[in-house]
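Lab manual, section 2.4: Encoding a predicted structure.

Procedure: take the sequence of the chain (334 residues), apply the prediction step described in section 2.3, and record the output as structure tokens. A sample record is shown.
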Amino acid sequence: MSQSVVVIGILAVAGAAVLAFLFANASRQRRAAENVPPGMRPGYSDEQLERSVLERYMAWGVVLTLFFAVFFPVYWIREQSRTAGAVEASFVSQVVAGEALYVENCSQCHGGNLGGGAAPSPYDPESQWPAPNLSNIVTRYADNRNVTDIEQFIIRTLQIGRPGTPMQAFGGQGGGPLTDEQLNDIALYILTNQVEETEEASAAADLSGEQLYTDNCLRCHGEQLQGADGDPARPGKNLVGVFQRHSEESILGILQNGILVPTGAVMPPWQNGYQEQPYTDEALQTIIDYLREQQPADALPDEGGTEDTDEEEGAADDGGADGATDEPSPSPDV
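Recorded output:
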């Protein structure tokens, strides 16, 4: 038992004793005057009011003032350490609870050590859908202009999932089984077990634009680039005519930072976030070149260039409502 607790206990006992004495004294006075009607009981004389009664009240005021002058400093003298201890205990309990929830709900795809893995593809039972590494998600998204709060980004991903991918919704908002508190615990566990190591960006010099598209974009946008228009189950946008909606600079920005909208991230960033080994601008440009090669003649813009639509303006900086390639969630698909 700490010294401050002992002192507080002593002060509390002393205060209780004082109150008991006051109540006992008042009780004796009441019993002495029980047989006298209240209206006929004598009051204090002027001399009593000005001396003994007043002095008694003042004395008790001094006693109580001294009591509280000592009690409050003693009580609060270790309040900072007590509060820090309570916060640490709460943090530890949250991390432990988050680890248990992660193991139960997330480790099958992302691995027991947050290192990433795979899940069965919803489109081809024989192929695997990559589940990103969560152990360095903070470092990977550090330069992403769309993600300013990585903790809320993770929680939002857990809440609503990634429609069209193996990443299901775990929060009540998305029809999942977990509470907001449990989602916070999982996010805290992930953020507590971060490492800073990431792989260097790859130029993918040995891969063609078609190969990069097949490896990273096809699962959402389809072989014919039609996305959900060609297969309603796929989450990707139709990329036929994408150059009429976006300039090449805008498409490059989308590939770099992904697309983030209030309902969640609908397009992963292939340079600043999702990718374990991010792609350089040169690699992303080969994807853009491949997309241009696959466009029908009437789906290409006039030689004067392309301006982003109002809805998707500034996609190169902030993400838009359309994308040049898509993939499962850019955040932890737990």
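Check your result against the sample. The first strand starts at residue 117 and ends at 120.
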